[in-house]
Amino acid sequence: MAASERLYELWLLYYAQKDLGYLQQWLKAFVGAFEKSISLSSLEPRRPEEAGAEVPLLPLDALHVLAEQLDQGDLEQTLLLLKLFIILCRNLENVEAGWGQVLVPKVLALLTGLVAELKGSAPRREDHGPCLESVALHALLLCEGLFDPYQTWRRQHSGEVISSKEKGKYKFPPAVLPNEFSAFFRACSSPIPHLQDLTRSIGGSTRGWESHRDLSKLPEAMFKSRRRLRACLALPSPDPESLQDADRLPPILLLRLVHLFGTAGGEQTWVRPGTFETSSQLFSGKHHVSPALDHFLRPCMSFLSCSLSRGELQCARLDLWELPAVTTWPFLTAPFYPKVLDQDTDAIAVHVVRVLTCIMSGSPSAKEVFKERIGYPQLQEILQSHGAPTHRLLQELLNMAVEGDHSTCPPPPIRNEQPVLVLMRWLPSLPTAELRFFLAQHLWWLCDSCPASRATCVQAGLVGCLLETLNTGRTLGARCQEQLLALLQALGSVSLRPLELRRLLRPPPGLNSGPGGAEAENARHAGAIIRALSGMARHQGPARALRYFDLTPSMAGIMVPPVQRWPGPGFTFHAWLCLHPAAVVPAPVTTRPLQRKQLYSFFTSSGSGFEAFFTAAGTLVVAVCTRKEYLTMSLPEVSFADSAWHCVAIVHVPGRRPFSQNLVHVYKDGHLVKTAPLRYPSLSETFTSCCIGFARLRTTTTPTGLPEPPVPAALAHAHPSLTRSQSIPASTGLGWGSGLVAPLQEGSISSTLAGTQDTRWGSPTSLEGELGAVAIFHEALQAAPLRVLCTLGPNEMAPFKPEGELHELATKLLLHYSPEACKNNICLDLSPGHGLDGRLTGHRVETWDVKDVVNCVGGMGALLPLLERVAAQPQEAEAGPAETHDLVGPELTSGHSTQGLLLPLGRSSEERMERNAVAAFLLMLRNFLQGHTVNQESLVQCQGPAIIGALLRKVPSWAMDMNVLMSTQLLMEQVAAEGCGSLLYLLYQHLLFNFHLWTLSDFAVRLGHIQYMSSIVREHRQKLRRKYGVQFILDALRTHYSSPQRERPLVADDLHTVQTSLLGLAREFLVRSFSADDMQVVLSFLAAVGDDGLVVSTLDLLLALLQGSLAQEPLAAFLLEPGNLEVLLALLVRPKSLPLLPDRVCKILRRLQQNERLPERSRQRLRLRECGLQGLVACLPEGTVSPQLCQGLYKLFLGADCLNLSDLMAVVQLSLQADLSVRLNICRQLFHLIYEQPDIVRLLARQAGWQDVLTRLYV
């Protein structure tokens, strides 16, 4: 309080007596009270409210008096005044009161003189006051307070982010830059001490200028000399270790000045390339290496990142032929560049790449100039010459490709494909495997992020570059090759040319020259190629167009000549198109103006006609415009923006009678999706404006009573087309202002005034998608021909050919455009009239399907060597027990209770099956054959199935696993679905029925093979019976599944399961259609096979046929024919046979005895009249007799219609060789026989030797 009263008292004394002594005392007291807030060394920001609350408001007349004291030459007095003004500027109301006009010229004049003294161009003053530097620095600090009152530059320099909303709240504007500044700037053109502090203060002022954009008043003298920039950049070079924050300020602030000068209005404020050329020369070999180089490029990149600066550099005001100088390209080619890299790795290269990205972002002309004047190969060469890149440099090149942040999810589309090619060529020479994998992975992510990126990379030739990289061989590393092959698969699914496929099929040079493991490496490489080709050929969903018009650019489309007279009464539009979903952009983001993507528009000079467009969400809108109304029908429930090719047809049907209803039908993929009443325009006028996928210059008519909105001059200059359009610009908003009424909506039908459609639906733009063949008819077509048109697909070259199904539609064609009939941007009209050739603005894209391309390199036979290469795959690729367990379940892998189980084929995904290279090859064949008749015929002509079967025999047994079996099933099912019978049966012969391929595999694979073969046989029994009937099955059974097994034998239970499965298949043949030839095969099999277990199973088959099947009568008659019964009896006398074998034979004979329908002649053979059981028993081999044999022969004796006691004595005699239990059983049965038939005793006594036999039986 005392200090304030003292100040007030001194001011009253000075005001009353006009004594400068009192003024001097007041200045010292006032400055002493606030001097602590003045800091020359700190760059910390100071808030205005920190020291401005107690600072008084100085009247303007007092300011004039004090300002006059600055010219008196007294440095002490001048310093006090400067401090006073610095403190008073803390109260922003002082700055607003016109201080700038009074103080700034005085201060700048003072500074000019001080700088001259500091440089030595003027004699120094001989006094003992404060030094000149202190006065100059305080003067500069005062300038900062005047030009940047809100401390904007200091706050941003400290890292604070100042929002535009906060800047909008600024109340007090900064001082205006006067003409005296040019003299001061020229005085500072050469190096002087403390220039860092000088430019620091100037930087504070430039921030103030930028904040308020008062740039139109910049002095003209500021733009006359380039040498001052060179002088300002030629800074003293301190020790890098002692480089402080202030040392980075001069280049930063200098660039800020250039930025502001460039954004100023007027012709004299152009930013000229010489400015950057001069700056780049400063860092050439003629000068010392300045640490400020890096700090120059950082603000340079920020300068060019500004949308205003970049736009100015890209526009016509900048000579693009001087782009190398603008892009700081000389920094990379300078001889000192390695020294800078030693200091901060690749900082300079990173900043240069960022500058290039900023300049070329969104500018096709800038990209083209850089490509022609410098070239990306030179960029790659220079970057490579400076050593190995870092992750940061590679990421900047990836950012250049997308013109943004490549690490966002999902990745942005590729907008500049040239950096991708540079990185792909650079990849093999990267020093570490980790760096190569990083780059390969990120290239795959970016290039496969969306259909647009894939198409861009394919058209740029990335596939060929990728193949060159892959040909470098093992130097890439396994992980890197995997990523590159995944990228190759993604790009090849879009397009793969014949030369590229030929290079892909050829093994890389040096693959087989490595020491050891060459075959395994070759097999792994072939397996990777197979998986890539399989992925290229795999296609799900609707077919895609191989040739199309790329209408993605906003001005792309097809201009149609005027239609003088509409030939017919109706209108039908038919086209193939592909729209991609809108990219999801993170919020907040600038709202995109409302636009409608034009599908077609046919308008007369009066504004009436047809139109159809898509909204940003992909909703189709069909419109009709009359002189007064614009009527639309939308289809929000039908989506087209799904990156798939769709067939769209729009049919306008006029009413047949006056005042009848007009209709519009919309078809998607041949199906009617919408029908609604919609007004039909008049066709009597000439259609003067006709476009397909193109934004017309004139979109509407001027409605009656609707005022034409004014067009801003700046907008009209930037977009001349808007001045020619009589519609309301979309930028005026979506609200309905005066003169406009809300649209009348009726369901999906809406109506608005003609001339307001741009406001309602947005300004027209191109289709922003891909367009295939287009046909327009002058009549309303019915649903049937439209469905046929859709069935033909997007690649049909001549749908209206005379011999075709749609030849009648040719007379109704108005025009027909096809991408295949387009050359030099002229779309030939393929309709019979040939009078409406269109002009294409855009690109015609031609792609190659790998299924078609394979016929250019030798057909399907060219793929077969891949199977031979994978036959040597290493054993670590084996699925192993765990995977087999996962594929087929625990039942089949356990080996227990497997009979009757069905293998769950088709449960595994293709990706899982492709782990086995052999299975991947079969799946690749399946994908190549799917929907391609030419490839199916090619595989048959080259004997492909036979070659595949022969090559599969070279595959190791462990590799023929469940994956191979499942892929075989998928291959045959696909061929069966295609209806190619000749190929299907060849595959059956050489793959399915070739037991040599499967009999060395695991049990689950063998059983699954038999089950699948059985299902095929059941499905095609009549066609396969002759070649793969009973004879084939039993031969395979005897060759591969009878004991003893030579290789990879099965355990007994598993072997029995396999045998039962095959015999069950043979049984189905015999049951459904009995054949004596088949039965003869069975008996021959019984006689020839040496496996008793297999014989027993076959006898069980015969016994089952004799028990209740349709074949039991003919089978019984066949078995009793001459020579056939002897086969069964021969089995009884087989030495060392299983006990079950005679039991099964006796059961069959017993079953034949019980058949009463047999003729007597056959029954006589069954009784063995010639030798009886005595002769049969006599032929039995010596040894232990089984109970089953004795029991069976005894039952045969009892089943005879006439008992023969000689046979009984032979059976009893045979039982004497058996165990005691057998003899006991025979005794019991003999007692029962005697008890039931008493006369048997008398007959038995007549038999010779009965006493000896019975005595030995009972004793």
Short précis:
This protein has 1259 residues and is α+β, with helices and mostly antiparallel strands. Residues 877-900 are annotated as: Disordered.
Can you offer a commentary on this structure?
Among the domains are: 38-201 and 219-228 and 251-262, no CATH class; 345-495, no CATH class; 547-583 and 594-698 and 747-846, Jelly Rolls (Sandwich), CATH 2.60.120.200. Mean pLDDT is 75; it is low at 206-250, 259-292, 315-328, 334-343, 586-590, 698-747, 877-882 and 889-907. The chain has 60 helices and 20 strands. The longest helix is centred in the N-terminal third of the chain and has 28 residues, at 92-119. The strands form two sheets. Strands 2, 4, 5, 6, 7, 11, 12, 13, 14, 17, 18 and 19 form a twelve-stranded mixed beta sheet that branches. Strands 1, 3, 8, 9, 10, 15, 16 and 20 form an eight-stranded antiparallel beta sheet that branches. The protein is of the alpha+beta class and 1259 residues long. This is Neurobeachin like 2. Residues 877-900 are annotated as: Disordered. It comes from Loxodonta africana. It holds the Pfam family Neurobeachin.
